[in-house]
Q: What sequence folds into this?
């Protein structure tokens, strides 16, 4: 007999080979009806798999969060069946689950699918789901599988069978008369998929990502537990499209990209004002704790060989040489992809004592990393960007306190920008890493303790978790993820402990006993990439920035040219008060001017006419409001002066 342990800790004995479906049926009829899969020792498995050894068992129902991946996986198989029913001769390749959905790649001799084909395919999928055919698994020999696919003309599947390691089983899953090669698991039948799915778009994709191979059509789709979940996701996509930072960047005249500078930003005046405001804010937050430094952008590759980046990261780096043929110095240099090796050189310059630690070096450093052209995406993924980077050199005894200090700073910065839903995860040792297990054990033990304190200090406001095996090759790290106004999550800040680089470069400090000791190096970033963080902010606020951060805070404009002189007076007073203000004296209708400046997301428009000039007042129009308000000029100036004070300065004034 085998012993099966249930989630409540209870145990039962069963004959070896009993399936999860049989156990669910014994527990209750209602559970048997709801069950779609099982988790054996935490691993999702087919409900009809035999259980042959002692195990922990959970029966997984369709509304279990873990079932969402199965819903999407099963829907991919149904999409492939629908395509082959509708378009005989089409070959299927692979169809994985991805974030928020799935895709399947198809080879169609007649030519690629188009968006016009999607409604027909989706309708056929709904037919197949309604048939409610069971998913059944068979294990075949390699020769059986290849022979079957060859007879069906499925050349890509034959290639996939050949690629399966010799020690792995060849699993085939059938849904009615249709069958596919698959690792599994699947739910019990196609009917369990439900109707909360939608085909989204088509794209081209090379087989195996090789541009020398066949071009396939990739059909992207999404699937959810319920129709309500699907509707919420589609609404979020619509909202995300409206908030797209590339679109808002054009409307607000913030930045552009062009072919001659792929992946680097051309900042316009208003966009650069945003960038500078963010930088100024961050500089104020670092003042008193950090020394701001600047390391060279171009360094000999020898430095990057010592750091390990030339071996670990070379394909993401830009190599540079002098352009002239007659130049004496023909060494190979690299544009820095990160700031850490430069900061170690600054730390090493001059003897350091334990009394000098912790030493915190910060830099708003321009870095360059090669990204494939297809991966670049506006400000979110570029080749040239600025890191709000810092490195703390400290003793092992100070490591936990420094991580907590960084945590408080990161959370405070996010709060100032309106982000209050934060998740902090500890990423632990990856398979490929440097350093001894003892070092990793110590670092992970300290950071696990710190993670617990982060959760405790936040009184449950901050979510915490573990990312097993996701640490950097040189040490464990904290990753900070924030949730924006429409529910999307963005990973921004990091805190990474590093015992490796200081040792590689021979960095040391003189300890209290007079001996040399290698410092712990903590890498930390808050925004990460300043460009990406600005992209996130543009989309989070949909361009409606808080007044203190807006690139153009007030627009002064006129109803009639008779008010031009008064408008100039208002403009000068705002300018003197430190407001980022523009003036519009064009001979255009006021509704036209208001509409134009509202599209450019100017937070406040001060309208001046003959009446306002006589009364020394302004008509204030707030972005997003349909109700203008008449205010005295003195009152309006006081309001603007109060609202343009950044939150960190307000705190400092309140505490003074």
A:
């Amino acid at each position: 007999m085998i012993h099966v342990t249930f989630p409540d800790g209870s145990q039962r004995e069963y004959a070896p080979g009993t399936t999860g479906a049989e156990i669910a049926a014994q527990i209750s009829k209602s559970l048997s009806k709801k069950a779609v899969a099982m988790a054996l020792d935490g691993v999702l498995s087919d409900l009809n798999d035999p259980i042959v050894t002692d195990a922990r068992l959970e029966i997984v129902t369709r509304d279990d969060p873990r079932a969402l991946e199965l819903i999407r996986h099963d829907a991919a198989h149904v999409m492939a069946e629908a395509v082959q029913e509708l378009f005989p001769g089409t070959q299927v390749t692979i169809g994985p689950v991805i974030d928020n959905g799935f895709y399947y790649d198809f080879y169609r001799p007649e030519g690629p699918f188009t968006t016009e084909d999607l409604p027909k395919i989706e309708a056929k999928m709904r037919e197949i789901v309604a048939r409610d055919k069971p998913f059944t698994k068979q294990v075949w020999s390699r020769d059986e599988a290849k022979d079957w696919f060859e007879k069906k003309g499925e050349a890509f599947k034959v290639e996939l069978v050949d690629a399966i390691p010799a020690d792995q089983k060849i699993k085939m899953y059938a849904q009615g008369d249709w069958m596919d090669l698959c690792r599994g698991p699947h739910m019990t039948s196609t009917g369990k998929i439900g109707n909360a799915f939608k085909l989204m778009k088509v794209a081209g994709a090379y087989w195996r990502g090789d541009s020398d191979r066949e071009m396939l059509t990739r059909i992207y789709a999404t699937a959810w537990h319920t129709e309500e979940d699907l509707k919420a996701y589609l609404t979020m996509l619509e909202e995300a499209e409206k908030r797209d930072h590339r679109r808002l960047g054009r409307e607000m005249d913030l930045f552009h990209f062009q072919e001659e500078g792929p992946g680097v930003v051309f900042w316009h005046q208003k966009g650069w004002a945003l960038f500078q405001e963010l930088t100024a804010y961050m500089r104020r937050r670092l003042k008193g704790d950090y020394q701001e430094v600047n390391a060279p952008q171009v360094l000999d590759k020898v430095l990057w060989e010592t750091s390990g980046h030339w071996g670990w990261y070379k394909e993401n780096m830009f190599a540079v040489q002098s352009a002239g043929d007659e130049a004496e110095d023909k060494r190979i240099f690299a544009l820095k992809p990160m700031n850490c090796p430069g900061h170690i050189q600054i730390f090493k310059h001059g003897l350091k004592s334990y009394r000098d630690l912790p030493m915190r070096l910060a830099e708003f450093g321009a870095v360059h990393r090669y990204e494939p052209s297809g991966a670049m995406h506006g400000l979110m993924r570029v080749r040239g960007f600025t890191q709000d980077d810092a490195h703390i050199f400290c003793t092992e005894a100070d490591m936990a306190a420094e991580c907590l200090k960084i945590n408080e700073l990161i959370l405070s910065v996010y709060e100032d920008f309106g982000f209050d839903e934060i998740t902090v995860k500890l990423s632990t040792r990856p398979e490929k890493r440097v350093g001894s297990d003892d070092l990793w054990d110590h670092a992970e033990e300290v950071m696990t303790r710190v993670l617990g304190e982060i959760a405790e200090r936040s009184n449950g406001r901050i979510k915490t978790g573990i990312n097993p095996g996701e640490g950097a090759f040189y040490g464990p790290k904290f990753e900070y993820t924030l949730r924006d106004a429409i529910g999307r999550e963005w990973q921004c800040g990091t805190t990474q402990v590093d015992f490796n680089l200081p040792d590689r470069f021979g960095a040391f400090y003189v300890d209290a006993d007079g001996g040399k000791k290698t410092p712990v190096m903590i890498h930390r970033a808050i925004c990460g990439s300043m460009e990406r963080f600005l992209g996130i902010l543009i989309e989070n606020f949909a361009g409606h920035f808080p007044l203190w951060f807006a690139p153009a805070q007030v627009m002064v404009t006129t109803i009639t040219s008779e008010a031009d002189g008064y408008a100039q007076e208002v403009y000068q007073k705002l300018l003197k008060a430190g407001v980022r203000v523009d003036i519009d004296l064009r001979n255009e209708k006021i509704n036209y001017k208001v509409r134009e400046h509202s599209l450019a997301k100017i937070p406040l428009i001060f309208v001046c006419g003959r009446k306002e000039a006589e009364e020394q007042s302004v008509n204030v129009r707030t972005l997003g409001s349909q109700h203008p308000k008449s205010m005295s000029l003195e009152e309006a100036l006081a309001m603007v002066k109060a609202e343009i004070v950044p939150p960190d300065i307000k705190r400092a004034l309140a505490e003074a």
